[in-house]
Structure formats: C-alpha cells, structure tokens
Amino acid sequence: MGDSCQLPKVIVIGAGGVGIIGALSLCYKGLSNVSLAIRSDYEIVQKKGYKISSCDYGQFESWKPNHVYRTVEDASQSGQFFDYIVVATKNIPDGPAHSRVPKVIQPLVESNHALSEGRQTNVLLIQNGIDIEKEIWNAFDRKKYHLNVLSGIQLIGSTKVAPGVIDHVGKDQLQVGAFESENEDAVKAAKRFVELYHNEGKNYAEFDASVRYSRWKKLLYNAAINTTTSLVNLDVPRCLEFGVDRKSTEENVFRPAMREIVAIATTENIVLDESLVTFFVEITRHIMFKPSMCVDHEKGQLMELEVILGNPLKIARENGVQTPVLSMLYYLLVMVQGHLREKNGLLKFDESKAELVETK
User: Domain Ketopantoate reductase C-terminal spans what residues (predicted)?
Assistant: First the structure.
C-alpha cells in the first residue's frame, strides 16, 4: 500500500446499506482513499461512526471511511480530485429534480474539471435498470469533462436499520463494466475498480464484459417480479401462493412478463435463454423476500419505476414489440407512483375540481 495521498480517490454517494458496505469494502482493501457523502446521518457518523454488522467483514462499533462530507457540494469544495464517483442511490428520474443523478453528481464533475481539465473522471452507477447512462451523457459533454460512465450490478443484502446502523446479511457480489465496451479507457477504469473493491474470501467482484446483456438479464426479475410485488404489496412467496390454484401468478404474470423482456432484448441481438425465466421464477420462491420496489412502496417512498419498467417499454415501442403484460403493470404502477408523489408533495390534486393542478 502506498501513501494514501497518492492512492486513487473514490467518493460514494448514497449512504444507505449498499453505499456503506461499498465504502467499507474499498477501505478494507486499502488501495484507495475513500470518502462518503452522508446527508441525514452526518452528525451521528461524525461523532460516533457507523455501527456495522457484516456477514463479510464482521462487527464494527465506530467505523468511518477516510473522509465524510455532509453533502456532495461540501465534497466538491474540498480541493480533492475524485477518480471515481460511485452513485449508490435509487435512480428515480420522475422524482424531485434535485435528486436526479446528473444534478447530484454535477458539483463533483465540475470541481474535477476545474482541478484538472485533462484528467479522467469515472462515474460508476451501482443502480438498477436499463439506459441509465444516457441521462449522464445527455447532461455532460463527455469530451470536455473526460467522462467515463461505468455500470455496477450488485447483489447484496444490506440495510440501514437505524441512523448510523447497518445490518449486512447477504454476501456482497458486484459486477463492474463499461457501458461503452469499445471505450478502452472506460474498460480499464472498470477493471481497476474491481481490483480496488475485491477482497479475496470476503466479497465477490468481477469485471463485466457484457454490460447490456447483464442489465437485460437482471430486468427479467426486476421488470416482472419487483414490479408485481410492489403493485400488490406482497412478498414473493405470497404472490406465488395466493394465485388461482397457486399457479396464476407464475403462469399468467411472472413468466409472460419475463418473456416480453426476452422479446425486447432480442431486438438488440441479446439472447436471454428460456432457462433464465425458470431460474428467476424459482430464485425467491421459498425465501421470505420483498424486492426493493415493494419495500419503497411500503415506506411511502418513490419507486424506481421508470428505469426498471418505463425504459424497457420505450425500447419495445421503438422496436415494435408487443408487451401487454408489462404495459399493464406499468400503467397500474404509474398510478401508484402518482399516489406516492402526491404524498411526498410532488403532485397537487384539487379535489374540488377532481383534477391534477400542479406537478414538481
């Protein structure tokens, strides 16, 4: 390990269960200088650090990374150039403007550019969905900012159970790749991040050479099962068991929805084998598991509806693919999301006129 000042600098945005274990994994490896933008828990963490119970790393009573910042803006004024900006927040483009990913990372992209115009900035999106990189490229001139956008697909069971308290129960598995596989600098940056992150015998990290394939593959589960559970507010086993003759959910919702994802992906020359449909139907059949959208709905928080379901349906329309099941799920969930947006003050409905009068 070299002088910490010479190590690549990584900032993690999104101090929930995923972001904290990500920062811990980087610190444990010791090959990078790690910062966290914390927001709500800043005072507690600054004073006491994080209390973490991790299946990968054990128990910590007062853990902190190398640096903690209250906000992304504070980090951008620190005089540090961040080689990797890791975004581990939910991706909700129909949420408040200030929480959209380009807006969140803008201070750091700008400060990096001001500090060193020719140096490469790598934005790693550890987030769900398809086409999530496009809003970054639409917001920033990649040549001006020397910007690479990397994909992170993570399987992890980690939750912030209280302010400054993390419970990590499912082994961390991370795939990192370049959205542009032909971009040698981005590929090199993705492979380097895997080296910074992987702790042999603790977590599992690998380079993802086929990002588009990996994201379509994960959508088989998320677009069919994550969405359905959030619509009916049930865990996966109950969704399956409560169907007509304990069959209709699988045969009339999950499998047809997944096959529509297969059909959309095929128009991009991405082949998802039928065996994957069975694999994802079965993977949580006997586990008391509520997917992320269901949990968000229960908590009254906005769901990742557009990146998980809205974006694949846009591609389906462009490519002429019929999607009756996915479309129905989407139209119903748009109403649920509208209810959540209203509760969160992002919509205003005038009951005297029985109509929507304002959106934010």
Answer: 211-335
Architecture of domain 213-343: Orthogonal Bundle (1.10)
Q: Which of 189, 176, 181, 175 is nearest to 147 (CA)?
A: 189
Domain ranges of the chain: 9-209, 213-343
Neighbours of 159 (CB within 10 A): 17
Right CATH for 9-209 from 3.40.50.720, 3.40.50.1100, 3.40.225.10, 1.25.10.10: 3.40.50.720
CA distance 10 to 339: 37
In this prediction the pTM is: 0.94
**Cα dihedral sign, 137-100-23-298:** negative
For 159-215, how does the pLDDT look when each residue is reduced to its tens digit (9 = 90+)? Answer: 888 999 999 999 999 999 999 999 999 999 999 999 999 999 999 999 999 999 999
Q: CA 184, CA 209: separation in Å to the nearest integer?
A: 12
Q: Pull the structure tokens for residue 238.
A: 């109950």
Query: Which amino acid is it at 45?
Result: V
Q: Using an 8 Å Cβ cutoff, are 248 and 228 in contact?
A: no
